[in-house]
């Protein structure tokens, strides 16, 4: 089984789903039927245009009939694609065009986008006059996708294009030598981490990932109960979707038994029978046939049909025919308008808004009528209790939208905008003589800006936000997890309890533990270790196949026939559903049918459900047929030697991908055999590393103990009753939870917390950390691979991008410095490098150009510049105003000297000539460090761009946060010199001391097992396998300890470092992998005595970054009131805040604020002219502000002064 | 009371001895002295060359490596250097703390890539006896276009100040312990056979073991039902290692001398003496 898992990770990236989805969308040469091409083929520029072409307005072309095709015409013959994309390039302002690498994009704040060409065909009077490929803009490139420079197929082309001059060498290598390098080295050569998974975009120099979206499956009828005014009513719903347009159609059963339909953008509801009649299902027999399946339904349907014939409700004669129905609807929705307009309106409703997935022409109406009948049938079945409510949270009713699908949505709307604009441009500039000039009329910016804006803000079409997010780079594992995240569109604020719960169908598809805590709990999920998200397969092929198998396409229901659904549509009936299902499975397992197809037989409702659509999450399982699996030693060897791959396993029916729907038909054995606790020969405790299944696939399971090399037989657990066998149960977890050791021994919420914290831990997130210009970044100085590790960690190569350190941890209290989850750290350990990390912050500045030819300048600001600092402030800068690497800088030091042109209409204008402004970039207040690197380059606008990276050494200090992988977090409570700490008889002094009280109530047994495992591993020099369900057992670890002269219990005799006396109790001590989390005191501590105030209110600013004040809140104020400390309150709330003295006119009838007249040097009331009776009043500036604002409203506030009593 | 020290095992960098008739506090005093009060030479100031590094005519190297200067400095500080206990401590040196051959040793490091720079590349500018004891401690790995050039200043310090001045490790003691188990216990014979030094006495029914000599087979005794433990908190078995900067015996004698002189200071201050 390990061979299968190994093969998965050999063949696929961890973020395979993202890459596959994007590659599917992109129009590369090997993908002629790309989704992007499909978008263009089906795109209507305006409602009147045919799909894939646009027709210029005759009135603007002087009567000429001009059409421009940009998509392919639908037809039997496959036409060549019209859209084409190149590799990512940038057009420099100098005019040259160069390939760009991801690193260059990050460094120069560029967009990693590739030029997109569309071939337009001009058709004048039905004659194709010419074809012209035009660049329509640029399209974002996913890193490591097929069109990325880093892709295997492209990297050589890039190396050749670097254009080596004769005999010039790069890093000491000639072109031939470069090309001969292994792929990973080439990637490194381009400044990239070979282990970076890719799957993200680079926009404006920042990495952005598209979060996969989970949504209710479109085009699928869902029946459920809804509560309306204290009554439960049955509703049948469908999200009908076609080419980006989505419509929710519901059929409801009113309390009087009448079925009504609601359609989007239509006020009110339409009775079902009326609508069906309007759609051409005219005869009562047809309506009856399309709904009724059960005798009990008959009266309900009759009631509805009679209702439509009610002459009182529908005067004059009731609705009997299609014509009656259409007249009724026209009257309702377009009353009193012209016939032509009424028809158009009705067509809009019936063809566009109603069930758009069935078609948008009047020919499709009958189909829709019958479909509505089916919705009513499902509804009545629910009403009669024949069918159960559909489970909305069942994964079979959900689809995942991946980056490709999201880009499709975005591209559809952006390219439509571009083409609409093009159409307008062509009509505007049309000139009979010159004909049409396409390349001049295409405005690339229309497309580019829309794409860039959506990706850089995350505001997608449809008003969704947060679709694209800044890629997390705290640690490698955080990046992986971010790229595998799946978000639900349900609102965070509502409870949605059921949606947040773990659903059984998530087994093997979504990680059971990795979800945030708090408002997003259960709504944001992460994919399990190995999943596949379907790309879709044309359903026509399946229907064709079904027809050959004897599909009966009849209208009415005959008893005993099985309904056959394909992608939610009833395509017909078959006399033997079980046969259909087993035949389809047989074909799929022999490779004759696409593996994208999943089938399910629902025996309760006698239905066969076939799915071929995209977005279903699936998981791989071994096929069990007749109590046998096809996997055997031969296949295992072939896999290990790379002779065959996953494709072969799938096409030969050894494994298959099951979606949640088909899994309902399966009975899955979790383990292939009953694993004995220990080897019957040598007595070694057995676990996955020590067992080899020597004869997989055979009836008698023979295992080999790898300790003593003896074989023995055990009982097989899968039987002929089973349909599948789990490949490995560890696959149910996601990548983050997968690296947590012994998860099955922990309390579930602790695993969730452990996963959340692992994502915040510092480590080696990328190997190109010295080159990356991230605005914020961390790097742990001495990352170690964990002593206690898992197989998941191996698969995702966590060991080479680790994020923690193995620390000696003792479980005792020490003078109460570790109460309340604090940890005590050994001072010597810190001095030797424990938990040391670097923090980077990149500052950037650009020599911006302004309209009018002025521009910013990097320089040491000369003394005449406005706002210039003292000469001392610029001491670190060279003559170009740039700081040198390895200079130490602290708060407020100038990093980049810069001046800007004066602002237009400056207040000083009339006094002197305009002066340039100082606009230097300074180090953030409260931060310090060494200048790590200085990068001077050219931005997209051909202006100089400067990036300065400052590095800060972060040595663990009081208050820094640390956590193990079991949700056990804590801050440093004390740093104690080593000689004061307890020590063992071997002279081991713990690095970290945690409090024993943190264990019992939290039940993190995994933490204790890790302690034992770490100790055993360090003694024997091996990594302990602690993979979930299959790790090295506790007994085995304890024996290992004893074998090496340590106590079986894991405890040790310890002595107090202060008194030298032995502790009465033995102390539990061992090695635990500890992670430094990015919440460090250095980034948080804050105090203020004096500081900046807000301009408007003159109150202290808010927040650490603005050196803000610390709020003296209501509760704090209450304490002072409680003490009667009036002056203390005044001090806090007035003197230390916005206290202000105003002069108030003392005249009883005036009471306005007075002014100080500088000419006469006297106080004067500007309202009454009084100069003598004026008094200073201490008040808050906020009060004065309110007075002024009220005054601007025309409200006078008079201040009446009086003496204090 | 007859205090007594007995050497059990001794090597260049390792020592094990027994002291009897002292209190735990006394033993702890010695342990603490061994850890934090032994002077050691360590590089404490590092000066990096920044910018291009040239070698020969046409070879230009970058001084920026995959590790940051502060990391390299910290690594260099941890390299054990041979220590002469007679050397002056900085603050009390005749030079007044400015650095002179009596209290300071200068080192220089120059290496060009591709290479794994190790402690062996660290060259003592003074006496050759000061070159690092272990030549294979990795410092930083350079690639083909990188080089490193720096000089370091080493002076004496104590682990109380910083761990880089720590010359000992694994400093510990244990009470003398006697473990009595029934001879009927299944594994007893095997343990006796495999760790003969640990057997104190045996008779028909019982065996008495001691943990004074390390043996990994002793751990099994703790799970035996018939186990009786007797500890003596006046007899201590000490053991420690050094990192090579000093010999174990040197450290021990210095520590004892150090305790004596610290008490001496007190004695001198006793009023009326």
Your description of this structure?
The complex is a heterodimer of chains A (1205) and B (273). Chain A has 32 helices and 57 strands. With 1205 residues, chain A is α+β, with helices and mostly antiparallel strands. Chain B is 19% helix and 37% strand. In chain B, strand 4 and strand 5 (59-61) form a beta hairpin. In chain B, helix 1 crosses helix 4. The radius of gyration of chain B is 25 Å and the shape is flat. At the A-B interface, helix 27, strand 44, strand 48 and helix 29 of A face helix 1, helix 2, strand 11 and strand 14 of B.
Shape by Cα distribution of chain A? globular
Spatial sequence of strands, sheet with the most strands of chain B = 1-2-14-11-13-12
Query: Uncertain segments of chain B of ≥5 residues (pLDDT<50)?
Result: none
Please state roughly what percent of the residues of chain A sit in beta strands, choosing from under 5%, 5-15%, 15-25%, 25-35%, 35-45% or over 45%.
15-25%
Inertia-based shape of chain B:
flat
The share of residues in extended strands of chain B comes to 35-45%
Distance between the termini of chain A: 91 Å
| Helix-residue proportion of chain B | 10-25%
- How many β-strands of chain B, per DSSP? 14
pLDDT averaged over residues of chain B = 90
Q: Kindly state the number of beta strands of chain A.
A: 57
**Helix-residue proportion of chain A:** 25-40%
Entry summary:
The complex is a heterodimer of chains A (1205) and B (273). Chain A is an alpha+beta fold.
Keywords:
A: 1205 residues, alpha+beta, six-stranded mixed beta sheet, 32 helices, globular, B: 273 residues, four-stranded antiparallel beta sheet, 4 helices, 37% strand
Compile the SSE list and pairings:
The complex is a heterodimer of chains A (1205) and B (273).
Chain A: H1 2-11, H2 16-25, H3 35-42, E1 53-55, E2 66-69, E3 83-85, E4 89-91, E5 97-99, H4 102-108, E6 113-124, E7 127-140, H5 152-161, H6 175-180, H7 183-189, E8 201-203, E9 206-210, E10 212-216, E11 222-228, E12 231-242, E13 245-253, E14 259-262, E15 270-271, H8 272-278, H9 284-291, H10 298-308, H11 322-333, H12 339-353, H13 365-384, E16 398-401, H14 403-429, H15 438-441, H16 444-457, E17 468-470, H17 476-483, E18 485-487, H18 497-500, E19 524-526, E20 532-533, H19 539-548, E21 562-566, E22 569-574, H20 577-589, E23 598-602, E24 607-611, E25 617-625, E26 628-629, H21 633-640, H22 646-651, E27 655-659, H23 660-663, E28 668-669, E29 691-693, E30 701-705, E31 711-714, E32 724-725, H24 735-738, H25 748-758, E33 776-780, E34 788-789, H26 791-795, E35 805-811, E36 823-826, H27 827-831, E37 837-846, E38 857-858, E39 888-889, E40 894-896, E41 898-900, E42 917-918, E43 921-922, E44 929-938, E45 944-954, E46 961-963, E47 969-976, E48 983-984, E49 992-994, H28 1005-1020, E50 1024-1025, H29 1034-1043, E51 1051-1052, ...
Parallel strand pairs in A: 10-18, 21-24, 28-32, 34-50, 35-49, 36-47
Antiparallel strand pairs in A: 1-2, 2-6, 3-6, 4-5, 6-7, 8-9, 9-17, 10-16, 11-12, 12-13, 13-14, 14-15, 18-19, 20-25, 21-22, 23-24, 25-26, 25-27, 25-32, 29-30, 30-31, 33-37, 35-53, 36-49, 37-45, 38-41, 39-44, 40-43, 41-42, 44-45, 46-47, 46-53, 48-52, 51-53, 54-57, 55-56
Helix pairs in contact in A: 1-21, 2-14, 3-14, 8-11, 8-13, 9-13, 11-12, 14-16, 28-29
Chain B: E1 4-10, E2 14-20, H1 24-36, E3 40-48, E4 53-55, E5 59-61, H2 69-77, E6 104-112, E7 115-118, E8 122-124, E9 138-142, E10 147-157, E11 168-182, H3 188-194, E12 199-202, E13 206-210, E14 228-242, H4 248-269
Antiparallel strand pairs in B: 1-2, 2-14, 3-10, 4-5, 6-8, 6-10, 7-9, 11-13, 11-14, 12-13
Helix pairs in contact in B: 1-4
């Amino acid at each position: 089984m390990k061979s299968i898992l190994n093969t998965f990770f050999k063949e696929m990236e961890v973020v395979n789903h993202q890459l596959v989805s994007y590659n599917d969308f992109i129009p590369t040469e090997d993908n002629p039927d790309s989704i992007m091409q499909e978008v263009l083929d089906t795109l209507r520029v305006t409602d009147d245009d045919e799909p894939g072409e646009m027709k210029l307005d005759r009135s603007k072309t002087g009567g000429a009939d001009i059409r421009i095709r940009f998509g392919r015409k639908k037809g039997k013959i496959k036409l060549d694609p019209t859209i084409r994309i190149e590799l990512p390039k940038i057009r420099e302002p100098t005019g040259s065009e160069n390939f760009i690498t991801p690193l260059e994009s990050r460094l120069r704040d560029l967009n990693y986008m590739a030029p997109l060409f569309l071939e337009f065909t001009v058709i004048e009077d039905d004659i194709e006059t010419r074809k012209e490929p035009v660049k329509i803009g640029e399209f974002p490139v996913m890193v490591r996708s097929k069109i990325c420079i880093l892709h295997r197929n492209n990297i050589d082309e890039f190396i050749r294009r670097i254009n080596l001059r004769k005999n010039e060498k790069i890093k000491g290598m000639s072109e031939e030598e470069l090309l001969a390098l292994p792929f990973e080295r080439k990637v490194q050569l381009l400044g990239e981490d070979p282990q970076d998974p890719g799957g993200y975009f680079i926009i404006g120099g920042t990495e952005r990932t598209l979060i996969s979206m989970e949504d209710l499956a479109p085009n699928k009828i869902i029946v459920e109960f809804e509560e309306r005014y204290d009554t439960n009513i049955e509703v049948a719903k469908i999200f009908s979707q076609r080419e980006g347009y989505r419509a929710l159609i519901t059929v409801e059963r009113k309390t009087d038994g009448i079925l009504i339909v609601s359609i989007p953008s239509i006020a009110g509801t339409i009775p079902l029978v009326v609508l069906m009649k309007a759609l051409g299902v005219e005869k009562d027999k047809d309506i009856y046939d399309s709904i009724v399946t059960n005798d009990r339904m008959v009266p309900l349907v009759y009631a509805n049909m009679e209702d439509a014939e009610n002459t009182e409700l529908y005067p004059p004669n009731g609705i009997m025919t299609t014509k009656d129905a259409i007249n009724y609807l026209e009257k309702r929705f377009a009353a009193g308008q012209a016939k032509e307009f009424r028809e158009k309106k009705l067509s809009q409703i019936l063809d566009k808004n109603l069930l758009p997935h069935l078609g948008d022409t009047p020919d499709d109406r009958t189909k829709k009528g019958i479909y509505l009948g089916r919705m009513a049938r499902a509804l009545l079945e629910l009403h009669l209790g024949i069918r159960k409510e559909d489970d909305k949270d069942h994964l079979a009713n959900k689809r995942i939208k991946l980056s490709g699908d999201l880009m499709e949505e975005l591209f559809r709307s952006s390219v439509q905008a571009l083409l609409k604009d093009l159409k307008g441009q062509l009509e505007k500039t049309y000139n009979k003589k010159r004909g049409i000039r396409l390349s001049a009329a295409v405005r690339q910016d229309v497309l580019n800006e829309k794409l860039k804006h959506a990706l850089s803000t995350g505001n997608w079409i449809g008003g969704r936000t947060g679709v694209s997010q800044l890629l997390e780079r705290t640690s490698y594992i955080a990046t992986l997890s971010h790229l595998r995240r799946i978000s639900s569109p349900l609102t965070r604020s509502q409870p949605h309890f059921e949606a947040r719960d773990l659903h059984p169908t998530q087994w093997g598809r979504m990680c059971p533990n990795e979800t945030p805590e708090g408002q997003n709990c259960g709504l944001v999920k992460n994919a399990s270790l190995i999943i596949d998200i379907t790309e879709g397969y044309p359903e026509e092929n399946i229907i064709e196949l079904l027809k050959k198998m004897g599909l009966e396409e009849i209208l009415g229901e005959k008893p005993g026939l099985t309904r056959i659904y394909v992608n939610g549509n009833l395509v017909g009936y078959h006399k033997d559903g079980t046969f259909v299902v087993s035949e389809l499975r047989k074909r799929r397992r022999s490779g004759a049918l696409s593996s994208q197809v999943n089938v399910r037989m629902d025996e309760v409702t006698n239905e066969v459900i076939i799915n071929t659509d995209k977005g279903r999450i699936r998981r791989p399982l071994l096929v069990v047929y007749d109590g046998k699996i096809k996997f055997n030693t031969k296949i295992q060897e072939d896999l290990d030697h790379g002779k065959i791959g996953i494709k072969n396993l799938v096409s030969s029916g050894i494994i298959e991908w099951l979606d949640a729907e088909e899994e309902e038909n399966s009975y899955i054995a979790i383990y292939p055999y009953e694993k004995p606790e220990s080897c019957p020969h040598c007595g070694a405790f057995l676990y996955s590393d020590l067992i080899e299944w020597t004869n997989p696939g055979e009836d008698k399971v023979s295992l080999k103990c790898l300790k003593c090399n003896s074989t023995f037989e055990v009982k097989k657990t899968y039987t002929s009753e089973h349909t599948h066998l789990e490949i490995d149960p560890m696959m149910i977890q996601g990548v983050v939870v997968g690296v947590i050791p012994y998860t099955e021994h922990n309390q579930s919420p602790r695993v969730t917390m452990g996963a959340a914290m692992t994502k915040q831990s510092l480590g080696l997130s990328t190997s190109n950390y010295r080159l990356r210009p991230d605005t914020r970044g961390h790097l742990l100085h001495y990352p170690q691979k964990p002593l206690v590790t898992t197989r998941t960690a191996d698969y995702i190569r966590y060991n080479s991008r680790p994020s923690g350190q193995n620390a000696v941890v003792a479980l005792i209290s020490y003078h109460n410095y570790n109460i309340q989850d604090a940890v005590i750290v050994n001072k010597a350990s810190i001095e030797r490098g424990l938990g040391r990390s670097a923090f980077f912050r990149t500052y950037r500045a650009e020599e911006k150009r302004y309209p009018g030819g002025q521009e910013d300048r990097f320089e040491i600001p000369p003394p005449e510049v406005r706002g210039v600092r003292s000469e001392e402030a610029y001491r670190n800068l060279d003559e170009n105003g740039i700081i040198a690497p390895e200079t130490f800088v602290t708060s407020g030091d100038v990093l980049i000297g810069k001046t800007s042109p004066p602002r237009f209409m400056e207040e000083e204008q009339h006094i002197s000539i305009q002066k340039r402004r100082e606009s230097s970039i300074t180090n953030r207040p409260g931060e310090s460090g060494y200048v790590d690197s200085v990068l001077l380059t050219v931005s997209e606008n051909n202006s100089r761009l400067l990036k300065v990276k400052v590095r800060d050494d972060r040595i663990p200090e009081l208050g820094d946060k640390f956590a193990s992988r079991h949700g056990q977090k804590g801050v440093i409570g004390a740093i104690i010199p080593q000689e004061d700490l307890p020590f063992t008889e071997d002279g081991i002094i713990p690095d970290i001391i945690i409090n024993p009280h943190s264990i019992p109530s939290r039940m993190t047994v995994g933490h204790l097992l890790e302690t034992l495992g770490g100790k055993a591993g360090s003694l024997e020099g091996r990594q302990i396998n602690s993979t979930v369900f299959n790790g090295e057992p506790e007994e085995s670890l304890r024996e290992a300890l004893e074998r090496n002269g340590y106590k079986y219990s894991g405890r040790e005799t310890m002595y107090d470092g202060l008194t030298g006396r032995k502790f009465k109790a033995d102390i539990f001590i061992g090695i635990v992998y500890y992670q430094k989390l990015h919440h460090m005191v250095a980034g948080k501590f804050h105090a203020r005595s004096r500081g900046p105030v807000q301009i408007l209110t003159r109150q202290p600013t808010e927040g650490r970054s603005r050196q803000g004040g610390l709020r003296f809140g209501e509760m704090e104020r209450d304490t002072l009131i409680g003490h009667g400390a009036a002056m203390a309150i005044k001090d806090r709330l007035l003197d230390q805040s916005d206290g202000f003295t105003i002069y108030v006119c003392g005249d009883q009838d005036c009471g306005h604020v007075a002014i100080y007249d500088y000419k006469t040097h006297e106080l004067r009331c500007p309202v009454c002219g009084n100069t003598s009776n004026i008094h200073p009043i201490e008040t808050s500036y906020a009060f004065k502000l309110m007075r002024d604002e009220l005054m601007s409203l025309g409200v006078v506030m008079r201040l009446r002064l009086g003496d204090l009593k | 009371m007859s205090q007594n020290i007995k050497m059990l095992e001794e090597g260049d960098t390792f020592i094990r001895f027994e002291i009897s008739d002292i209190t735990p506090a006394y033993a702890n005093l010695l342990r603490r002295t061994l850890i934090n009060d032994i002077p050691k030479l360590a590089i404490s100031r590092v000066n990096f060359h920044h910018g291009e590094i040239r070698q020969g005519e046409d070879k230009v190297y970058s001084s920026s490596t995959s590790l940051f200067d502060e990391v390299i400095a910290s690594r260099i500080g941890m390299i054990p250097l041979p220590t002469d206990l007679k050397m002056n401590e900085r603050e009390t040196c005749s030079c007044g703390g400015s650095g002179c051959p009596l209290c300071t040793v200068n080192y220089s490091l120059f290496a060009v890539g591709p290479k794994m720079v190790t402690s062996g590349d660290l060259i003592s500018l003074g006496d050759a006896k000061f070159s690092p004891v272990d030549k294979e401690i990795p410092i930083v790995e350079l690639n083909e276009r990188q080089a490193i050039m720096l000089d370091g200043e080493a002076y004496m310090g104590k682990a109380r100040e910083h761990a880089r001045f720590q010359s000992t490790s694994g400093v510990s003691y244990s009470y003398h312990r006697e473990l009595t188990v029934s001879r009927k216990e299944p594994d007893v014979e095997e343990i006796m056979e495999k760790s003969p030094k640990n057997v104190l006495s045996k008779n028909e029914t019982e065996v008495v073991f001691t943990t004074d000599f390390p043996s990994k087979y002793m751990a099994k005794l703790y799970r035996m039902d018939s186990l009786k433990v007797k500890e003596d908190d006046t007899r201590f078995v000490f053991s420690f290692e050094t990192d090579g900067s000093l010999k174990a015996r040197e450290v021990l004698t210095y520590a004892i001398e150090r305790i004596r002189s610290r008490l001496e200071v007190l004695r001198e201050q006793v009023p009326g003496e």
